[in-house]
Predict the 3D structure of the following.
Amino acid sequence: MAARSQTMVVPTDAQLLKAQADLWRHSLYYLTSMALKCAVELGIPTAIHNLGGTTNLPDLVAALSLPANKLPHLRRLMRLLVTSGIFESGNNNLTGETYCLNPLSWLLVEGVEAEDHTYQKYFVLSTVSKHYVDASLTLADWFKKDLSPPLPSPFEELHGVPLLHEKTAELDEELDAIVREGVAAHDNLAMGTIIRECGEIFKGLQSLTDCSGADGTTARAIMKAYPHIKCNVLEQPQVVHTAPTDGLALDIFKFVPPAQAVLLKLVLHFWNDDDCVKILEQCRKAIPSREEGGKVIIIDTVLGPSLGPIMHEAQLLLDMLMFVNTHGRQRDENDFREIFTKAGFSDYKIVKKIGARGIIEVYP
Ligand SMILES: C[S@@+](CC[C@H](N)C(=O)[O-])C[C@H]1O[C@@H](n2cnc3c(N)ncnc32)[C@H](O)[C@@H]1O
């Protein structure tokens, strides 16, 4: 019998050992997520903050009111979280190994009074919730099933209701509340940075409609920085009462009130391409010509490797999060260009990339 052709050169010993270690890492990364969940549930970041920002293990065990015999296990948990970049560690000659906060764990401290602090506890708890994890466990079955369009997300196929929908609370009220808080925490982070680094997109505007602007946090930040801009928030009726005074209960698919510019911040990634085109068409109708300053401002993930492998990996994980749980997706520049063209826009410009997100102006 003829030997089967090799699909690749047999790896070297060193490559095989590295391959096995990588396999361990990728198979076991869920334990990093669960260790993070555990740290959040125990309140470890807040405890370290309350202990003055640095602590040793015995003090941490006492602050968390854990049984003393759990100290060695807490050491193992903290060791993984330090190696994963969630805490920092140091050494003190007298007290031994110490742990302190870094920018990531600072975001998990409850009750910090700082303009740029947005408490991320519920983002973590929603992404590692049983409902999300169960949905991700069905991925292979979801691929094999012959589902008819519009394709339900694995979440919807498993749980029978879409996420962030009026029916989600019927599935599980606590999940619905955690997810809504988690989305708000995710969406509100970095608005200060956007205004500081990219304020020119708002300068010179007379009026702005923030479409699907949630509780109006973004609109309030813009109005604080640029008090001359008349800012409306368009939202669903059940959300609009939480927005500032100019909240408008409207369906984004049916009508966007006229303004010089329309803002879509972290909105398009929640919708499929056809829905994005419908939304963008309504936005185009709402704005004047380019010469009169008409534009749609989009703040959303713009997928791409240019920001380095860590940011890119974070973007791709966010895309999987949308895939498993929603009808949305993260898009690269080509994907955006396609929906802009279909919605009848003539041009666009990526004004800046801020972290994993891009700021795009789209012109009629
Ligand atoms: C991801 S959140 C948007 C976040 C917000 N732009 C921000 O940056 O904080 C998506 C929002 O879309 C709103 N939404 C969903 N369907 C809508 C519709 N048909 N018309 C208007 N808003 C809608 C939801 O209520 C939700 O607040």
Summary: The chain has three domains: 19-106, 122-184, 190-363. The radius of gyration is 23 Å. The longest strand covers residues 295-303.
